[in-house]
Every structure is written in C-alpha cells, then in structure tokens.
Amino acid sequence: xxxxxxxxxxxxxxxxxxxxxxxxxxxxxxxxxxxxxxxxxxxxxxxxxxxxxxxxxxxxxxxxxxxxxxxxxxxxxxxxxxxxxxxxxxxxxxxxxxxxxxxxxxxxxxxxxxxxxxxxxxxxxxxxxxxxxxxxxxxxxxxxxxxxxxxxxxxxxxxxxxxxxxxxxxxxxxxxxxxxxxxxxxxxxxxxxxxxxxxxxxxxxxxxxxxxxxxxxxxxxxxxxxxxxxxxxxxxxxxxxxxxxxxxxxxxxx
Length: 254
Description:
Blueprint: H1 7-17, H2 29-32, E1 40-53, E2 57-71, E3 74-86, E4 91-105, E5 110-121, E6 126-142, E7 146-161, E8 168-182, E9 187-198, E10 201-216, E11 221-232, E12 242-252
C-alpha cells in the first residue's frame, strides 16, 4: 500500500506515471508493429497497479499486451489493453480494447491487411465499438534509419453510445501515414496520423495520431514519451471534439 499526504497530487501523478493510461483511446496499430525479418514470435507486455487510502481512496490499474507472429509472407498481430482508475465514488478512467490483424505480403511494396477490433471507452460514452476492415498498405520508403508507410483501408463501424437509443452503423475510410526514424543508437522516433471520414458523408470525420520518442536504456528496455490526440467532428452528446494526452513510461520489448 502506498500512502500520500496530498490525494489531489496523487491523482495527477497516476495519469503521468502509469504506462498505458490515456484519456483519449487511440488504438495506434502502426506504433505496435515490430519491424523484423526474423520469423517466429515476438512482442511486449506491461502492467501497473497502484492503491492508496487516507482522506480519499484511489485505485489504478493499467495493462497491455502485444503478440506478433511472422511466417514467410504472413504476419499476425494480437493486441490488448485495459486502463482503469477509480476514486472513492467516481470512476475517472475506464477503457479497453482487443485487436486482431492479418498482414499478407503481396510484393516488396504492397501488403494487404484484414482486421477486427472491439473496444469500449466510458469517458467518451462509448459502451461498445466494433470495427472490421481491409485494404492495402504501401511501403513509401525504407532506408537504414527511417521507414515511411501509407495505408488506405475501408472499415465497417458498429458503435453503441451511452444514452443513445440506436447504435451507429457506418462505413469509413481509414487512411494513415506512419513513419519511424532511428535518430542514433539510443534515440528513436515513431509517429502515425489517421484520417477516418464516413464514406457517405466526408464532413463526419476523425483525426487522430500518436507521436513517440524512445530512449534506449538496455537491449530490451526503453524510456518512452507519448503524445496522442483524437479529434471527432461529431462526437457523442456532451463529449468534447478534442481529447489529448502526454504520458511517460517504460517499454519492455522481447
């Protein structure tokens, strides 16, 4: 048990210290890919728990896992994440997701992808969101120290919103630009920006992105700083259009 004298300060520190916590849940698949020519299994995982009780009681839980399996032209990705913070009477944060993706290498430039994703995000009043999509991914440039990719997928979205009688059923484009830059042996930068308009109404769109800076501590351990944002032109009633967060933590790769 961790005891603190200033509960308000503690609640702020929880958002900054615990890896994986993010007020705007941006599911950035590009950031989770492990670029390797080696076949077999790889991935990463992390978890954190914190609790305190004095004049107020807080509990925080964060966990995530990523598995990647590569064989010849095929690549399989499985992702999961859970974030939860609770005060004495209120839930400050409660979100999670699961994601499965298959990537097939057509040639040296083009990959074809299929994916399914299920998630919830209580802060954004999303009780359930299910996505299923497919489309090409293009390698724009690959050098010794940097890579650039472009994806143009089409996806079906089923979304249940809190206090909304009927669910949303839409088809959206999911276009993204992703890049990785190895600045030196210790420092690297990763970034992805998504644009997701409805196919029948391009005025209904979302912008989102994640931008990371990693400082290598050891072979498998890195210190990581993330900035993420999501902008929704037509968010659920009572939810702001823009969410963003800055977080820092430790990443373990294996």
